[in-house]
Amino acid sequence: MADLESENKTLDDAKNVQILAQGLTELYEPPLASIHSHLKELTEKQEAVSEILSAERRKLNDLQSDAMLDALLADIATIKERLTTISNSMMGLHKRVQSLQTRAANIEKVALNKASNKN
Fold first, then answer.
1. Separation CA 95–CA 101 (nearest Å)
2. CB proximity list for 69: less than 8 A, separation 6 or greater
3. Residue 17 in this model has a pLDDT that exceeds 90
4. In whole angstroms, what is the distance from residue 4 CA to residue 10 CA?
């Protein structure tokens, strides 16, 4: 009889352990699954951002090491200086043309006045 009670007690204990394990699993499984999915999503996003950063870093290195680009930038600075010089020269010429036109108009008036005074 003691063996029977001992066997029943062992079966009850095993059943109770199984029920407790099932209850703990049911309790903690949904949050753990949710956390797992969030971690997976974050990992995927982190990998995507890492790939984007790597691509941008490669682009930046390509641009910085491009000798042709450096030459073009130097040419831009030189051409800008030339353009400024030409623009200033053209402004000077424009002012001179305006003053010469004004002077020519004044000379023409004086000539007309002299011509009308002679008549």
1. 10
2. 63
3. no
4. 10
Asked if residue 76 has pLDDT above 80, the reply is: yes
Both tokens of 43, joined, read 């990992």
Buried/exposed code over 83-96 (b: 16+ C-beta within 10 A; e: otherwise): eeeeeeeeeeeeee
Report residue 113 as tokens: 């006045």
Q: Contact 63/69 with Cβ under 8 angstroms?
A: yes
DSSP element (H, E) containing 92: helix 67-118
Per DSSP, 31 falls in state H
Q: Which amino acid is at 17?
A: V
Question: Which pLDDT value is given to residue 25?
Answer: 83
Residues 87 and 93: beta-carbon distance below 8 Å: no
- pLDDT, average across residues 2-8: 67
Please tell me the distance from the alpha carbon of residue 72 to that of residue 118, in angstroms, as a whole number.
Answer: 67
User: What separation in angstroms does the CA of 106 have from each of 92, 96, 113?
Assistant: 21, 15, 10
Q: Which residue has the higher pLDDT, 94 or 117?
A: 94
